[in-house]
Amino acid sequence: MFFFDCDKTLYDYDFRKRLPALSRLTGVSQYRLAKQWWVGGHEAAANIGEYPTSDDYLAVFAEVTGYPLSLEEWREARAAAMTPVPGVLATLARAATLGTVSLLSNNPIPFRDSFAQLAPEAAALLGENDLVSAVLGAEKPEPRVYTRALSRYGVAPGRTMLIDDSAANCAGAEAVGMHAFQLTKDASGAFDVAGLDAAVDAFVAATP
User: Fold this and answer.
1) How far is it, in rounded angstroms, from Cα 58 to Cα 86?
2) Considering the entire predicted model, what is its pTM?
3) Taking the CA of residue 111 as centre, how many other CA atoms within 13 Å lie in the half-sphere pointing to its CB?
4) Which residues pair with 82 in a beta bridge?
5) What angle do CA 76, 100, 175 make, to 5 degrees?
6) pLDDT for 146-187, tens place per residue?
7) Coiled coil: which residue ranges (predicted)?
């Protein structure tokens, strides 16, 4: 089984594009949005499921910032920060022919509810296997994220592989017995897809 991260893995992600887009949509300054929502801990709370529905998330956002953000507006700002990584999406497609594939991403419920619109290329391959931290009640690299994900699929950790850009997240997966590959970029910004493909092949060859 293969677990793929989303941001900076399947899709490149740039918060520096998301915040200005959100500011344009809401009329709230970037400074205020960053301070009140992100620094204020609300996005972190959403990522661990404290706002269990998109409506809950948006209601708190309105209370905190004073703007009644719609899910469509949230999605538009989020999409502005995302760019598909074709090589990694191709690896996802290949992995889907070798075993089961699933998302495993630190994100809130509005992300999961919008995944088909935000990431249609990945959603077409993953289907309903769209796990986010808000559903699991904790963020990577906490051990319970991985153990809860494994329990969802009834799979042993040694038969799973995490693909993630974060060294800490990969270490967390390995600590519970999973295999992991940290996806990195070179100086030109190109992702190490060749290294990823080699790691996938090695994992498959070593897994009975």
Assistant:
1) 32
2) 0.96
3) 23
4) 13
5) 90
6) 999 999 999 999 999 999 999 999 999 999 999 999 999 999
7) none
Pick from 83, 72, 64, 81: which is nearest to 25 by CA? 72
SS3 of 113, please? helix
Q: What is the pLDDT of residues 61-117, one digit of tens each?
A: 999 999 999 999 999 999 999 999 999 999 999 999 999 999 999 999 999 999 999
Q: Which residues, 6 or more positions from 41, have their beta carbon under 8 angstroms from its beta carbon?
A: none
Amino acid at 55: D
User: Mind spelling out the 3-state secondary structure of 154-171?
Assistant: CCCHHHCEEEECCHHHHH
Exposed/middle/buried for residue 151 (C-beta within 10 Å: 0-12, 13-18, 19+): exposed
Tokens of 143: 């051990």
